[in-house]
């Protein structure tokens, strides 16, 4: 079971990946997240290049509940198959996050790292 503490995100070495990278840090043993389903998560997001945190449900003191389809493509691809109680790291290239530089979001053009704890599916 993932501990109930905000994860530290390791600063990556080398160039940003061009493909979605999925790494299970803790494998859960609960219900499995399904494509198109609802998920209840705690997460922290940092920019790949700077290591700067841009978002964290931990800092808000409450988990986030989303339909997977409403999320960025990297989450739609990277969360299904994860089990409740697990912690997963996703490294998401811009195409699967907020699009290329200039796409209108402050994180457009950026590779993002998320560490996600799945609380419910």
TrEMBL record:
Reactions it catalyzes: [protein]-peptidylproline (omega=180) = [protein]-peptidylproline (omega=0)
The entry's keywords: Isomerase, Rotamase
Keyword Isomerase: yes
Record-linked InterPro entries: PPIase_dom_sf (IPR046357), PPIase_FKBP_dom (IPR001179)
Enzyme class: isomerase
A GO MF label: peptidyl-prolyl cis-trans isomerase activity
Enzyme Commission identifier(s): 5.2.1.8
Keyword Isomerase included in the entry's annotation: yes
Chain positions covered by the region annotation Disordered: 1-21
Domain PPIase FKBP-type: 36-121
The family this protein is said to belong to: Belongs to the FKBP-type PPIase family.
Protein name, UniProt field: Peptidyl-prolyl cis-trans isomerase
Biological source species: Gordonia liuliyuniae
């Amino acid at each position: 079971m993932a501990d109930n503490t905000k994860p530290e995100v390791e600063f990556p070495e080398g160039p940003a990946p061009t493909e979605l990278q999925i790494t299970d840090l803790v494998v859960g043993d609960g219900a499995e997240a399904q494509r198109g389903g609802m998920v209840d998560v705690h997460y922290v997001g940092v920019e790949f290049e700077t290591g700067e945190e841009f978002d964290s449900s931990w800092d808000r003191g409450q988990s986030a509940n989303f339909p997977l389809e409403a999320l960025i493509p990297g989450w739609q691809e990277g969360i299904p198959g994860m089990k409740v109680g697990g912690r997963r790291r996703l490294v998401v290239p811009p195409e699967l996050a907020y699009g290329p530089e200039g796409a209108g979001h402050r994180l457009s053009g950026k590779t993002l790292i998320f560490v996600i704890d799945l609380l419910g599916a």
